[in-house]
């Protein structure tokens, strides 16, 4: 069936008002949760085939967070949907002001390959909670997971309500030519620019979850061993193929050597002396990605790792010492198991460092000094982050997740997902019991009264 025809069917269903009730939305969210529960074994198998992820990593980063998100949304949805009564100014005496939560209509969700289940279903939860119908376009680079999503969603939902569309670049381009009511995209900055350009032709609102070079800062008073453990974990989750992975480290010069030794120790502790043979170590998405990462290592000072296994598409955890900002490895998001390490002597220096790749999606700061923690949070622009840990801020439905500037537009998770997929519609209900005649041009004392009112 033509995509335009399916879109027309979605519009018919939406306009019938079926998705507007709390009862319907909760029922669909429960069906989604049951779908995940029922197909857990198949989900593990598909993601393993695509990315070689371990069971523990799939549970932690793909399935577990979805169950948490679904429970949180279902528990709070009635309150979020409720019409809000807000204040009305004196100039509108007799009127009442309300904000209604209106679905956009039919939304398009384009998801990436690095977390093929999580980053497909999390925005879908928001779309359902908001009362929309949805098209989901999963990545062609994770074919087993994409095929599974298409299969289990078709078994669970009506096609005119949720439709999974598979295919490559050409299919994405075809979808972007259609007039959806909202587009939610997760992926690279380069493709994000294309999505925004296409959406602008029809004035379609967008959320763009992109990426960038997210720094991790280790100050002189940090607990070095603990910092090294948490950074190693965050960097090597999914073999570094995480949009909020620590992309590079800024380490105070007084603790740099200690940090490097501690980091090497933790890397070996996690994955042994042969990480590429470890069953919990994820593979890279495709050969071109491995080639790109290997090229980034050219002429760099490798102080740990650097080896690659082409047959199994893996690369050892790799540390680079003091690369300059004009090097390719510092010019683009790495998205792999490579961590460049640069040093600083004063905390204020990190502002200039980060300015080379400003507005990162995430930032991590390790320090025991609360005053300096506050200074970093107040003075550096970034999408979101964690103090004395990595990655963890993405795992709570109580915090919005999103970028700023080149790292993204808009946010989601928990209430923010509901808000992203709904329009806050303002309605003023005016009284007919009396009329404020001073607003009309023939009012004798209209100007005098308005001057008094507006000066209050």
Automatic annotation (TrEMBL):
It holds the Pfam family Aldedh. InterPro entries: Ald_DH/histidinol_DH, Ald_DH_C, Ald_DH_CS_CYS, Ald_DH_CS_GLU, Ald_DH_N, Aldehyde_DH_dom, Aldehyde_DH_NAD(P). One of its GO terms (molecular function) is aldehyde dehydrogenase (NAD+) activity. The active site is at 209, 243. Residues 18-427 form the Aldehyde dehydrogenase domain. GO terms for cellular component: cytoplasm. It comes from the Bacteria. Keywords: NAD, Oxidoreductase. GO terms for biological process: aldehyde metabolic process. Belongs to the aldehyde dehydrogenase family. This is Aldehyde dehydrogenase.
């Amino acid at each position: 069936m033509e995509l335009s025809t399916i879109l027309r069917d979605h519009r018919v269903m939406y306009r019938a008002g079926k998705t507007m009730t709390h009862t319907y939305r909760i029922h669909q969210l429960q069906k989604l949760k049951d779908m995940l529960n029922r197909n857990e074994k198949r989900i593990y198998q598909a993601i393993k085939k695509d990315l070689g992820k371990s069971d523990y990593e799939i549970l932690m980063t793909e399935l577990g967070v979805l169950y948490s998100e679904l429970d949180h949304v279902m528990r709070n949805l009635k309150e979020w949907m409720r019409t809000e009564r807000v204040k009305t100014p004196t100039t509108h005496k007799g009127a009442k002001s309300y904000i209604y939560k209106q679905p956009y209509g039919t939304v398009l969700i384009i998801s990436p390959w690095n977390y093929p289940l999580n980053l497909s279903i999390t925005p879908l939860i928001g779309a359902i909670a908001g009362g929309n119908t949805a098209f989901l376009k999963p990545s062609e680079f994770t074919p087993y997971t994409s095929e599974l999503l298409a299969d289990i969603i078709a078994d669970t939902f009506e096609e005119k309500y949720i439709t999974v569309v598979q295919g490559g670049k050409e299919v994405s381009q075809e979808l972007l030519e259609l007039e959806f009511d909202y587009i939610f995209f997760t992926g690279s900055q380069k493709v994000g620019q294309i999505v925004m350009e296409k959406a602008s032709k029809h004035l379609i609102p967008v959320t763009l979850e992109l990426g960038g070079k997210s720094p991790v800062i280790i100050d002189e008073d940090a607990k070095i061993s603990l910092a090294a453990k948490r950074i190693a974990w965050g960097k090597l989750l999914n073999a570094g193929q995480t949009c909020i992975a620590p992309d590079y480290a800024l380490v105070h010069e007084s603790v740099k050597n200690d940090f490097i030794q501690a980091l090497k120790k933790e890397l070996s502790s996690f994955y042994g002396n042969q990480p590429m043979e470890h069953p919990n170590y994820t593979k890279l998405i495709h050969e071109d990605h491995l080639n790109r990462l290997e090229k980034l290592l050219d002429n760099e000072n490798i102080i740990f790792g650097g080896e690659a296994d082409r047959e199994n598409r893996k690369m050892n955890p790799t540390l680079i010492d003091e690369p300059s900002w004009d090097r390719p490895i510092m010019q683009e998001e790495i998205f792999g198991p490579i961590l460049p390490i640069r040093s600083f002597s004063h905390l204020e220096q990190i502002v200039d460092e980060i300015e080379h790749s400003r507005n990162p999606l995430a930032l991590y700061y390790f320090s025991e000094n609360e005053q300096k923690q506050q200074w970093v949070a107040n003075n550096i622009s970034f999408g979101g982050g964690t103090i004395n840990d990595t990655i963890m801020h993405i795992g709570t439905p109580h915090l919005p997740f999103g970028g700023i500037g080149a790292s993204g537009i808009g946010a989601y998770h928990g209430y923010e997902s509901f808000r992203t997929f709904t329009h806050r519609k303002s309605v003023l209900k005016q009284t007919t019991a009396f009329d404020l005649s001073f607003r009309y041009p023939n009012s004798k004392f209209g100007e005098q009264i308005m001057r008094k009112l507006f000066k209050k």
